[in-house]
Amino acid sequence: MTDPLSPYEAPEIYDLMFDTLDFDLPYWLKVGREAGGPVLDLGCGTGRILLPLLDAGVDADGVDLHRPMLASARKKAKAKGHRPRLTAANMNAFKTPRRYARVISAFNAFAHADTTEDQLATLRCSREHLEPGGAFVVHMSYPGPRYWAEPDGEPVMELEVRRPGDGRRIQMWDTRFKDVVGQRQRSEIEIREIDEAGRVAKTTGLGTSQRWVYRFELELLFRLAGYARWEFFGGFEGEPLEREDQQMIAWAWNG
Length: 255
Ligand SMILES: C[S@@+](CC[C@H](N)C(=O)[O-])C[C@H]1O[C@@H](n2cnc3c(N)ncnc32)[C@H](O)[C@@H]1O
Prior knowledge:
Layout: H1 11-18, H2 25-33, E1 39-42, H3 50-55, E2 60-64, H4 67-79, E3 86-88, E4 100-105, H5 116-128, E5 130-141, H6 145-149, E6 155-162, E7 169-179, E8 184-194, E9 200-211, H7 215-224, E10 229-233, E11 247-253
Parallel strand pairs: 1-2, 1-4, 2-3, 4-5
Antiparallel strand pairs: 5-11, 6-7, 7-8, 8-9, 10-11
Bound molecules: S-adenosylmethionine (SAM).
S-adenosylmethionine binds next to loops.
């Protein structure tokens, strides 16, 4: 059996589902504007965060493993007159000629570092790309007990959007398989296009997996990767991380 197509090989579907998400955008704009130097968006995808950063006058570049995502980001940036440096590379072994005031990892991109070695290599490589006094900033969902107790192995409709143009409903059904001990989720995703009569007119199968990380584990990883200090938050307002339903945001400084 061949592996299912990664959602990141289908940037038009990614954008349809996620490009209008802006819950985290004010945060990243603030991070970018206050960086005091260039910003690298690690796992920048189609530019959901990168493009608004560039629009706001932030000197920002991107790295992403999946070329179709980068191609989409490049096209959008060009249309707006921006010329970011976009590098196709694994986040655990990327190389850019510049150093950055901030390396950011938005919207669970770090969950694609699948093993401890991947996580450490990603953190080390990010640190090597930071200016002195620079910071790696990561946002991850916090996988608390409620998350693990959600339906497993059953399709759940996660999102429904109307496709601009023909107005057709597009649904994202996610069947999640959770591995509590491995701290992983494997997703079998079905994108359903619904016709005017309410019938499923077309389906596209996608698959991905995410590796979750907890606060003190991430702290140890920062320590091992050579960061000088770190700070954790429980959301985009700088609130303390104290409840399982919060988002985890961590800053790690290289000096
Ligand atoms: C959840 S998306 C986030 C995209 C974008 N940061 C956003 O907020 O919309 C995760 C991104 O990480 C990229 N990615 C997955 N594995 C990667 C890896 N090993 N190295 C670099 N990028 C990776 C995917 O192609 C995708 O664009």
